[in-house]
Hints:
The chain is α+β, with helices and mostly antiparallel strands.
Amino acid sequence: MKxxxxxxxxxxxxxxxxLSCIIPSRNSQRSPLLYFDEEKGYGRKEMAIAPNKMDAATxxxxxxxxxxxxxxxxEEVFGFPQDIEWAYEKGELFILQSRNIRTLKE
Length: 106
């Protein structure tokens, strides 16, 4: 398995799948930070990302590799590339949802 960072995107490849995972490595200037709304006890809140944090890594290399490895396992189980929603909470990875990517050309 090989983890490569290029153009602010992690690419994880293995022997079976030439391009298996694309994981953004940096915060996007267009995307606000989303977090759980503790005041309500449900839902989410948005917060702008501070300009000095725009280039901060969103994942460590180890987290990106862990996420990629799990992504490959999920793809293997379902037999089709997956769009996977995930979250880290206190250093632990949680898979929230996975669905087939149906827009890929064969």
